[in-house]
Structures are given as C-alpha cells and as structure tokens.
Write a structure and sequence with these properties.
Three copies of one chain form a homotrimer.
Chain A (H helix, E strand, L loop, with lengths): L12 H13 L12 E6 L5 H12 L3 E6 H4 L3 E2 L12 E2 H11 L2 E5 L7 H6 L1 H9 L4 E3 L7 H14 L6 E6 L9 H11 L4 E5 L8 H4 L3 E2 L3 H5 L4 E5 L21 H4 L3 E3 L12 H4 L6 H25 L1
Helix pairs in contact in A: 1-7, 1-13, 2-13, 4-6, 7-8, 7-13
C-alpha cells in the first residue's frame, strides 16, 4: 500500500480489522518494524484524538514522530498554479510538499474543509497537493471529504460489538450550532458500503450527502422509522451539502435520546456536544461505544502505518 | 501511589527527597522502568520549567512523551453537568478525560486558576474532572490551588542547602503588576508544614492565604520583623484571596533587597520580575537558589513519575 | 567546538562538507553518539525546514529532542540590564537561559531580526543572551544577522553540484512585498568568502549589505552583467540595511527568470514566493537546486550536532 487517503485504499477490510485486533492485544509486537523510520504529523487544524492516537500508534511501531501545527508554526501555503505570490501566502505547496518528504518516511495530514468553497474543498488541495508533489506515503488524518482513520476505527468497534452477521446500522443526522464538514459521515457511509449490513441514512430533507458517495444507500427522512430495530446508531451532524456549508436546520427533535435509541449501540466520532447532538443519558449509558471508538483510533492508525511500513521495506 | 495531585500524596517526604537526590546523581539509572510507557503532558496554560523538566524527567525514565497545548491544539472543554452545549465548548471533560486516558499510561495537567471565580477555581474543575473520569494516574503540573512539583523541588533544594536541623524559613509576599494565583504559595506552605522548620509568612494585611491551607502558621505583617535571622526567604507574589483575585497593593517597599535578605538564602519559583519582586542584586548574588530550584524540578518530577511507574508495574 | 553561532565556528569547511556527505550516505551511522543527550529547540519565530531538519538530524544521532515555541508556549523575555520589569516581560533572559541549560545538553535557537531596531538586532539579544548566561553549547537556527545552518547546507549542495574548481557564483537580490531580514544573505556571503569561487553580489543601489560582512566582495548593480557566465545563482530578497528594514524597491525586473538564469544552477533557501522572487519556470526546471538545498539542511545540522557531541564527550 502506498497511501491511506480514503477507505478505498483498504484492500481487504475484514483482514485489516482482524490484524488491528491483534495489534490491540499486543500493541508493541511490531516495535522493530518502524525503527529508524520517521513520521511527520502535519496539522492544519486542531485535533485531540487524531493527534494522540496517531502519535501513539507510530510509537507503538517504534517510529520517530515529528508533530507540526502547520498554521501556527510554519508558513501560509499557496495552492494555485501560476499565482503571483505577492499577497498572504509565503510558500507554494510544490516546495512545501517536496521539502517535508525529505525529512520523513511517512507524512500524515489533517486539513479540514473550508465549507465556503465547495469546488476547492472537493479538490482536496492540501492532501492532493502533497500527493502530487511528494514521493513518500501519505496518511489522511481528516481531509475535506473524508476521515478514513475514523471509519476504520468504527469498523473495528462494530466488529467487536456486533451480535449478528448482518446488523442494522443507522447514520442519524443531529443538530449542531456550527457548520461542520461532511468528512466523518462520508467515510462512515463508504465503510458501511463495504460491510455486510442493513444500512440506512436519516436526516432532514436538504441534508443529503454527496450522491457520488451515498450512491444507492437508503435515505429515510423519518428518523423514527429509520431507527426501528437498529443495532447500531451512528449520530453525526453535518452542514448542508447541496446548499454548501449552510446550517438551515437546528431542530432539537433530531437530537438522539435513550427513547429513540432503544436497545441499539450508540456511536459518535467525538468531540460531541452533549444535550445538543445527543442527550447525557445516551452517552452515560452502557450502550455508548464512543470511548471504545476513540480507543480503537490507535489500532486503526497502527494497522495503516504497519501496512505502509511493510510496503516501504519491500521496496 | 496513584496520583500526584497535592503535597498530601507524598507518603514519606524525607525518603522522597533522598531518592530524588539519588536520581540527580544518576538520572538515567531507571531508564528501563518507563519502557513502553507513555506520558501525556496537557497544558491549558503556558509553561517553561514545568514543560521542559517534566519531559526531561519522563525521558530519563525511558518513557515516551506526548505534549499537547490543549487550548490551542484541541477543543474548548465543558465542565458543567447537564449543560446544553450549544455555546462555545465543543467537548465535555467526561469524554476528553476518558479518551486521553486511553492513549497514555500517565497524564500530567497544567490548568491555572482563573482568579475570577473562586468557587470554580477551588473546585479544580480541570484536574478533578480528569481525576473523576480517567482511570490512569494524574500528575498536577500546577492547578488552581497547588503546584506540588514546585514545592517538592523546593524541599529538595532546601535539604541540599540547609546548615541546621531546624532553619528559619520566611515566605515573603512581593508586589507584582498582575493578578497571580495562590498555587505556588499554597503548596510551599503545605510543604513547610511537613518540615522541621521555624516557618513564618509575611504579607500586607488583606493578603492572607486560604486559612484552610495556612492553618496555624505564624503570620507576621511586619516584613522586617519576619525576616530577622531568616535562613531561607521564599519570595512570591499572589493576589488577594479574601478579595479574590484583586490586586490592591503594589507597594514596592515589599520588594526583596539584599539589605532585607541579610545572610539568608533566596528562593523563588520563577519566572520572576526583576526589580519589582526582587532587586537584581539578590538574584545575581550567590545567596540566590533560584537556578538550583529550577534544576531540581527535573528530579522532583522524576521521583513522582518513578513512584507512579512502580505502582503501575505492581498492578 | 563549543557553539555554532556563525560561519566562523567552522574550523575546516571542506572537511565538514565531506563529513556531512558521509552522514548523508549513512544517516544513522552515529546513532549511539547522542544517546542520553537532549537537545532543546527554542523557536521565537516560525519555521518549517529548520524545525524538521534539526529534529531529524538530532534523532539520526540518537538524541532526545524537546521542541518549544517560546513565544506562544512560554513567557515574554526581558533582555535589558537593570530593567524594572513592571511592563510586558515576565522573565529575564538571565534566568531563562540558565534554566533551559539545565534541562538539556545542547540548545538551538531561532530568533529573527525585528528590522525595526538595528542596534538591538545587531546585538543579537536572544542568541547572545543565551550565550552569555548558559553553560551549554548553542546552535543558531537563524538569528538577526546570520543563518549558518542554511549556509552550510548551501555549501554541501554546491560541492555536490559544481563542475569546476572555481565556479562563478552570483547572489542576486529579488523583490518581495514584505521586509525580510539579512540573515540568509549575510551567512551566504560569509560562506562564499571561505570558498574558491568567483563571487559577485548584485542588487539595486541602496540595498548594500552590512559592509562589515560583505567586505571587499564585488558588487555589480547591473544584474544582467553580474549574471554573465554564472554557474550558480543564489536569489534572495532582503530589506534595506542602510535605511534599516525599509522596502523602497519592489521592481519586478529584478525577479529571476529562465532567460536571465541561462545555464546556471538556481539556489534559494525557501520559502520562496513564486512569480515574485523567481518565475515558475526556474523553480520547475532541472536547474533548480532548492529541494536539494532543503534536503541538505538535515546533514548540515547533523554535522554541527555531531561536532558538538564529540566535544561534549571529550570534556
């Protein structure tokens, strides 16, 4: 495997999940694999779980880690071709990407959607800029359109928790005061499309995700109906995709409650706003998997890095 | 030992001081103790000495270190129970604490007093939030009401420097242009209460520390009288505790001078404002112990981490 | 060697360049040299290449690394002697320097010129403050007046790329919208004075560098004439030195182009503003050495740290 940019870079999901579970049982087993290899984590946006779990995963594999908050610590980057750079950007992605790739063996990047310019967000200028100009493997730590490390952690969590071969899984939109990206929802949808599951998305009308991603996944606008007999309920807010980045709906009736959840397991990527996205009772119940999802972020990152390191050593 | 939250977590001070001195003589002696163990340093406030000395102590013990500036790099945390989180906080301490504890074996936290809300400061919402919701050991890197790593370094320094069994020690308030917390003064007072010493606090009227901490320690409002025959003079500013967080007195007559110091040793936790808190001549004299206090921060942190690691390995 | 503050700390340039090339061929060869040694990287300004390459170099040598963004994470420092510190500075360089030196074996510092106060910039208050009050070796990661790690990387790059014993080298000023320091240009000039080369500086009148540095180096105000038969063209903007920090000229005729470059190799320290300092065609051509210069930053830092570590082990 060269890069881990999206779910489609997983060649065999069930095998990856099994290997991740092995790593979880024995996190330091491959500590020699990453010896004398360096990973650089570049954050263009804030991060808690991704920051710590990816560092931890790399250290479990014996790698050296360099963390950089690109926005505060480095230079404002230019992405346009042919730009006369006499304004606010000090360095072009062409140079930045090539330069960074000389100081490490793997680069991991977090760069959120702006939610103001759909075209630019979908072009994934930061991630694809690095992909275009760098020679080393790239790991997506959440980009404009995807968060595949989260989705992989979610798959590991569901594998651990499921009690039937083909569970019913519902992705349920929730209200939120701020405009949030589609990345987590997108990657979860893509992940579910690889799984044996009865998968439904529920959200208010006008909150349809990109059809190129949701494809023929069932959309049920009636949340109550969607949640019937659910085994897993994944709750997440996103802003409008069609009316790009807009927050037209903050209807608290969409908040997840114990009553709505029934006996299903509750999932969320975190951070989560309590009593806005989901009521306290759900998060504080034994049905909540959110802490275990976060825990599995380490092993999702670790299996990804392990696959990349194995590819590197074969070259 | 589980946590190091305050001086009261030290089970045997004189033994800890002796062990710290052994570590100082041979800092890498226990390098295998922390192998494959990770510490996460979470800074909610700025730090120089604590940042570097705690990292250094952890590395001396062979630990892996992750440093995070929570305010800039993560999410604004909510501490209230039952809050409808539709305002500025993005993540609840319940989730944050549980999540962080999955990525490391020990968490160290710095979270200063606000000095605006006494009740909230005394509740130590950050430190106690982590204590309540995390399963891993916690180290206090300065909280609202205490700075026990500093006080332990001070105890090591005094042990090295004292020339009599029961020295006279004076904690002398000093003027400062900004409102400063009580944490350093509190922990120093608590530390002195464990020591064989003739201990006096001197400060202007109205600057009494929390009586629950100062207890029956002698308070002498006449600085000159307090300083008579002192062996150690610990100088520190703090804002008013009774008129919480207020700076009603900036009287430069309280500044420490060579004349006032006499032949005593001078101590301060740093950073210190020269010629406001203490005159240049004192800091530049051989009677100043401030650099050695800072040096001992490493061994204070190291003995704390060593004790915790030893507890972990017994579980 | 004690410190690496400027080019003049290199005792034998050609030998250093050869050793750096050996390290480049086998970066981990000296991994035991830095065992149990700690380097602290203190950034008073932003950094990409220096931040990553110096960390990487230290890790290649087996060192432990602590990175601190002094401005955001620590305290505002005072540099004046005798100052009554009742304003914005919280800690004096005297304490800060002594304290930091207790937590590490080597300290590396980046502190740019202010470009507003020539006298203070030339006094190098940060770097010289650390030099004055610290006992440990200091590495200059770009100061007010020099960037000797960059110049050493440039020397390595030129050694790799030169096709004649005495190449013609031109330092060519370029326009830029912001006022930039003289550090890179200064150190490059000093480096060229140690090399066998036909060296010319070209810039608009009024942009003369400090004569104490340029000495008797040829200055040719006619860029075209200067560039004739050049083998290496080093392009760099700097603000006026005589009219200190002023940007009186932004004439785009000084931008480097393929036409002007001819068959010469192009060099720049990065970050570079495309189509302002140099046109795209130059950076995208095979004549551009900028990525290799950045790559050699690691080995420049590594040979410097290696020399210092060897000195330390002899003490």
């Amino acid at each position: 495997m060269k890069n881990y940019l999206s779910i489609s870079d997983i060649d065999n999901l069930s095998e990856w999940v099994k290997e991740a579970q092995k790593l979880k049982a024995n996190p330091k087993a491959d500590k020699k694999l990453g010896a004398d290899k360096t990973i650089c984590l570049l954050f263009f946006n804030n991060s808690l779980r991704t920051r710590l779990s990816t560092q931890k995963a790399a250290m479990n594999l014996g790698m050296e880690v360099m963390v950089m908050n690109f926005g505060n610590e480095g230079w404002a980057l230019e992405y346009g071709d042919g730009t006369i750079m006499n304004q606010n950007t000090s360095e072009h992605i062409k140079e930045a990407a090539q330069v960074v790739s000389q100081f490490c063996d793997i680069v991991a990047i977090r760069a959120f959607a702006s939610l103001t310019d759909k075209e630019q967000d979908e072009a994934e200028v930061v991630l694809n800029g690095f992909k275009k100009y760098t020679s080393i493997p790239i790991v997506n730590m959440e980009s404009s359109v995807g968060h595949p490390l989260q989705a992989l952690a979610d798959a590991i969590t569901m594998e651990e928790q499921k009690t039937k071969v083909k569970p019913k899984v519902v992705l349920s939109w929730a209200p939120h005061p701020k405009a949030l990206p589609h990345a987590v929802a997108n990657s979860f949808v893509e992940m579910m499309q690889l799984q044996e599951a009865d998968f439904v998305i529920t959200h208010p009308e006008g909150y349809e995700l990109n059809e190129a991603i949701s494809k023929n996944t069932t959309i049920e606008y009636d949340q109550k109906k969607a949640l019937e007999n659910a085994d897993f309920v994944y709750v997440k807010n996103w802003s409008s995709y069609t009316d790009y980045g807009n927050v037209s709906n903050q209807d608290s009736n969409w908040m997840m409650t114990m009553e709505k959840l029934g006996s299903a397991k509750f999932m969320h990527c975190l951070p989560v706003r309590r009593n806005v996205v989901v009521e306290d009772a759900v998060l504080d119940s034994e049905q909540s998997l959110v802490i275990e999802q976060a825990n599995n972020r380490t092993y999702a990152a670790q299996i990804v890095l392990k696959k990349i390191l194995e590819s590197l050593s074969k070259r």
